[in-house]
């Protein structure tokens, strides 16, 4: 019998291997990237951003510090539980499967880092 691996992403992001692989990603890297991206996109002041597949929220948190109204969404309950400690009036985190529609409109939707290209 073969193991069904079609939903591999549902468990990968909560494994010790994932956390080991990405432990050296830092806020400086995230901030420099987001500064360049938001300047290029010329988003409206206090614009609404969806950070899809946000993980533990490092990009979401920084975007919020720039004045954006940010929602971070991720399939990983553990990552969202961690990110929720940073929530405020304009920063929210939700467990959400990005294969499903999200019921709000945003000025920008970001799908960053290694979260792009998993699905056919």
- DSSP summary, beta strand count: 4
> Largest beta sheet, briefly?
4 strands, parallel
Strand arrangement, major sheet: 3-2-1-4
CATH architecture of the domain at 44-113: 3-Layer(aba) Sandwich
CATH homologous superfamily caption of the domain at 44-113: Vaccinia Virus protein VP39
What is this structure, in a nutshell?
By secondary structure, this protein is an alpha/beta fold. It has 5 helices and 4 strands; from the N terminus they run αααβαβαββ.
Can you offer a commentary on this structure?
The longest helix has 15 residues, at 27-41. The chain has 120 residues and is of the alpha/beta class. It contains five helices and four strands. The mean pLDDT is 84. Helix 3 (27-41) crosses helix 4 (58-65). The protein has a domain at 44-113: Rossmann fold (3-Layer(aba) Sandwich). The protein is globular. A four-stranded parallel β-sheet has the order 3-2-1-4, covered by helices on one side. The protein is 33% helix and 17% strand.
Task: Give the secondary structure arrangement, pairings included.
Elements: H1 9-12, H2 16-21, H3 27-41, E1 48-52, H4 58-65, E2 69-74, H5 77-83, E3 91-95, E4 108-111
Parallel strand pairs: 1-2, 1-4, 2-3
Helix pairs in contact: 3-4
């Amino acid at each position: 019998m073969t193991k069904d691996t079609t939903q591999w992403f549902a468990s990968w992001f909560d494994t010790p291997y994932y956390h080991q692989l990405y432990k050296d990603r830092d806020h400086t890297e995230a901030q420099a990237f987001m500064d360049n991206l938001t300047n290029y996109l010329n988003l409206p002041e206090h614009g609404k951003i969806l950070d899809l597949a946000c993980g533990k929220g490092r990009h979401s948190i920084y975007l919020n510090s720039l004045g954006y109204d940010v929602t971070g969404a991720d399939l990983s309950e553990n990552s969202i539980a961690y990110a929720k400690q940073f929530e405020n009036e304009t920063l929210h985190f939700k467990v959400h499967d990005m294969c499903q529609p999200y019921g709000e409109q945003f000025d920008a939707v970001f799908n960053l880092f290694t979260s792009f290209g998993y699905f056919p």
